[in-house]
Structure prediction request, 173 residues.
Amino acid sequence: MRNIAYIDGQNLHLGTTTRDPVWKVDLARLRVYLEKKYHVDRAYYYLGYVQDDDQYQRLYEEVQTAGFVLVFREHNSAMKGTKKGNVDADIIFSIMKRIYRKEQFEKVVLVSGDGDYKQLVDFLIEETKFEKILFPKQRYASSLYKQITRKYFDDLSKPELRQKIEKRKGGLR
Prediction:
């Protein structure tokens, strides 16, 4: 059996592109890393979605081309202000539904630093269904995760890991 990965797309993007040091993840390289390091067979990338907004089409294509299953949280284009993906509940529900239905998978890999997943992480550890949470930047991850052991988390921004998954200048992989 293989592992399943869940990526909180907004958390990954904001965690790497808006906080020092700023860097960008190469999604294709991330997908390969997840497969090789954590034996991830299926990887779900969750994003907010605006139906009539063409500016994000390149991102959607990049996510899918990299080998992720793209899952949207739909937003109405008439919403004012900043749109937030707010995919936490969707990810939690999807994982719990798989467990309830006794779907065949080994463990879950989660990419996020959001503390909203802490109860899920604790439950999955207890049920021996948790592999790892990968923080976009550990120093900005929720303080709730300070209680879990090093065995269950890693920092994508560590130099040796970042080197494996960072988007390189000129687009070369």
Q: What stands out?
A: DSSP finds six helices and six strands in the chain. The longest strand covers residues 40-50. The two ends are 29 Å apart (CA to CA). Residues 3-171 form a domain with the Rossmann fold fold (CATH 3.40.50.1010).
